[in-house]
Amino acid sequence: MEYSFSKNVDALTSSAVREILKLTQGSQVISLAGGLPAEEFFPIEAMRDAFNRVFDGGNKSLQYGLTDGYIPLREWIAARMKQKNMNVDLANMILTTGSQQAVDLLCQVYLDEGDVVLVENPTYLAALQLFQFRGIRAVPVEGDAEGMDLDDLAAKVKQYRPKMVYVVPTFANPTGKVWSVERRLGLLRICRENHVLILEDDPYGELQFDLSESYPTLFSLDQHPNGSAVVYTSTFSKTVAPALRTGWAIGDAQVIQTMVRAKQAVDLHSSSIDQMALFQLLNHFDLDAHIATIRAAYQERMQLMDDLLSRQGWTDIKWNKPKGGMFFWMELPEGVKAEEMLVRAVQEGVAFVPGSPFYAEQPKANTLRLNFTHTNRENMILAIDRLSKVIGEFCQSVGQP
Length: 401
Ligand code: PMP
Fold this sequence. Notes:
CATH architecture of the largest domain: 3-Layer(aba) Sandwich
Distance between the termini: 57 Å
Helix content: 40-55%
Bound molecules: 4'-deoxy-4'-aminopyridoxal-5'-phosphate
Order of helices and strands: HEHHEHEHEEEHEHEHEEHHHEEHEEEH
CATH topology of the largest domain: Aspartate Aminotransferase, domain 2
């Protein structure tokens, strides 16, 4: 048989980095690469009880469900969204197979091949891959620690006439960055004026270390779901467990209902038994206490990683100290190639993700992402020890101390 795949498949390039990282699975290599939550905090017993309660409900629990998702879970999420000043009705919400599917569904119903989406640079790798797969052109907007540069945004809106802007404004992947309220309001204003839809991807917002600061979502700043310039997506992947593959999107009812129609064609609905179990879990379990526990643990791990890196006394290496989320973003001296460094790091027994693939354009080869949430104290000390040795070697090779 001669197979002839669609031309979109050409965009699914295999990456050298992915191949290297595959080699680290199940080995002695300590991985700071994946964006993984810490397994020791997964609520496994509460989840077991939740599934049992679903099964106690009888055979109906194994039946087909609604495309837009299990109603009691949607009601629960709507109530939680309300606490964050996001007032939505059920018609404004769809449950998805992780927030990854929400991004995909919105692209399917809103963007055609050749359309432009504006993005931060760097931004979430799997969103870039999705845009590429669907023939959507991702154009980067300049930015700094506070978010997108609004002048560059306005200029690119004029130049490219994009239909959408994709942003991760709170504890971004990969940079850990948080947008200031001013930039959030500026983005909203520019997009509203030009009828550019904003996709606000917020998987990490709940993982905030210092609760005295407040980062309102773009969706809450826009106030009204219907007619909103924002489609907001979030997930239970980081607060409960990614295996449940349960995320949601909220937005204008017409936009959301169009996504529902697309979802029907794609997969009929996401796993209803997982949604039912999640609802049971949320009703018998203190999610806020659980989030407080993982926040504290993640903050401790973040602080440890920051201390271990600071101890090296490097002068020409920069990294952020994240206020939440899961990642450090590191910039090595000019000339160091993180992809080459990864090969050497894996030999030493530590892995990370080189930064280049996170850029829509003009990749910086001397950047990398480190995950601090998945690795316990003992392994973190070992991992940073190994990494520091390799960083030292590579910095020396480009003439830096
Ligand atoms: N968006 C961003 C920015 C992410 O980092 C992730 C997870 N790595 C996702 C979306 C997808 O999350 P999920 O599909 O598990 O909800």
